[in-house]
UniProtKB/TrEMBL annotation:
Main location class: nucleus
Bilayer-crossing regions: none
Keyword Cell inner membrane: no
Catalysed reaction, written as an equation: S-ubiquitinyl-[E2 ubiquitin-conjugating enzyme]-L-cysteine + [acceptor protein]-L-lysine = [E2 ubiquitin-conjugating enzyme]-L-cysteine + N(6)-ubiquitinyl-[acceptor protein]-L-lysine
EC number(s) from the headed UniProt entry: 2.3.2.27
Organism the protein comes from: Cucumis sativus (Cucumber)
Family to which this protein belongs: Belongs to the WD repeat PRP19 family.
Name under which the protein is recorded: Pre-mRNA-processing factor 19
Keywords attached to this entry: DNA damage, DNA repair, Immunity, Innate immunity, mRNA processing, mRNA splicing, Nucleus, Repeat, Spliceosome, Transferase, Ubl conjugation pathway, WD repeat
Amino acid sequence: MNCSISGEIPEEPVVSRNSGLLFEKRLIERHILDYGKCPVTGEPLSIDDIVPIKTGKIVKPRQAASIPGMLGMFQNEWDVLVLSNFALEQQLHTARQELSHALYQHDAACRVIARLKKERDEARSLLALAERQMPLSSTSFSSNAAAVNVNGKRVNEDEELGPDGKKIRPGISDAVISELTECNAALSQQRKRRQIPATLVPVEALENYTQISSHPLHKTSKPGIMSLDIHHEKDVIATGGLDTNAVLFGRSSGEILSTLSGHSKKVTSVKFVGRDDLFLTGSADKTVRVWQQSDDGNYNCRHILKDHTAEVQAVTVHATNDFFVTASLDNTWCFYELASGLCLTQVAEDSETEGYTSAAFHPDGLILGTGTSEALVKIWDVKSQKNVAKFDGHVGAVTAISFSENGYFLATAAHDGVKLWDLRKLKNFRTFAPYDSDTPTNSVDFDHSGSYLAIAGSDIRVYQVASVKSEWNCIKTLPDLSGTGKATCLKFGPDAKYLAVGSMDRNLRIFGVPGEDGAMET
């Protein structure tokens, strides 16, 4: 038999009384002196517990006088090496068992954590849904004590229907008109002294624009970004998706700040309000939602507005940040008081059958522009709610409207391209048709200074704004990197330092000059 430590036939065999294992006497004695336990079983073991075994005498060959000392030294070193190796093997075995157990525990903990997170998210969603469906008190967000919210919708207790079955609206009061007029006068006066900011990105830098980041914000099951808006002061970008969600994204941090759920169909329009952390969403589910940010950074739905009978296609906020307008395929646009969520007036043209597909306030706030599904652009006097001008000439639905900050130019996008209108003479002075007849132009946007114009279709093009008679040069063409061939919406960032673009995939793309303005590359 072999030694349980060295694996060799022992010269002086001994056996353990406790375990019955066979050892080399010198090896087991040294191990007992070092550890005081059996090297195999780990039980306590003393010198008295080992019993010598009588065997035939092993005759060693005679050796030269100098060799035995060397062999003895080698033997001693070998014994130490064997004992050390055996101890290391025991420790390795124990470590492997402990590691296996720890990995199993970690895997089980990860599964438990994932399940708890899922349950937490489901509970939060149910709680948020319940809060949105609960009636809000009249003092929490409304200054009109005669109104209540039922299932999130603003309803007047004394609301009446007219002879035609339509709701009777209170109308835009003289006080509201006075507020709109004062805002218009102040903004018009500022515009006369308006200068191009020195921080505006120059043409040379804009010519170097390229994609600097891409962020997957919406669900893969229903990809597509239908609308976007930018809060310039906070550097936050909002997107409305085909997946029924609105997402608020911090461009500087590169993180999703909040995902707003509640609509049952695609979110067609998103708009920031310049006060009280308010945010608006319009949807194909025929509703408009007013959201307000809470102290924990999440957004709560304060109002669900159900005044339209067809898809809401556009939401636009007045310069006072006290009122907003919604436009719908039901051929009406509604003028709302933001604080109460009350529809002051709902404007319809009985002679017209086309629905509204886009809308935007003029920078001064007394003019509203709307685009229709029948290729018409209509200009409205907000105070009287009268249609004061109509622009025709487009082909297909008017998908987007943008007023220049100079107050004179209006850009409209439709299936046939982009048309520029001079509001002073009420006529079209330039047309861009950058795409083929099968490719619509989906979005158009002036930057805040009125120096650049961007359009989106199968690609993204940026033009330098000029006068009515001068040529508007295309200074940059950016490819649609989504692979869908359809850029759906775009907005300039502050001072045109970047361009945010949404497409029919789930990614928000940021175009700008690489390495500038703290842009995050992903």
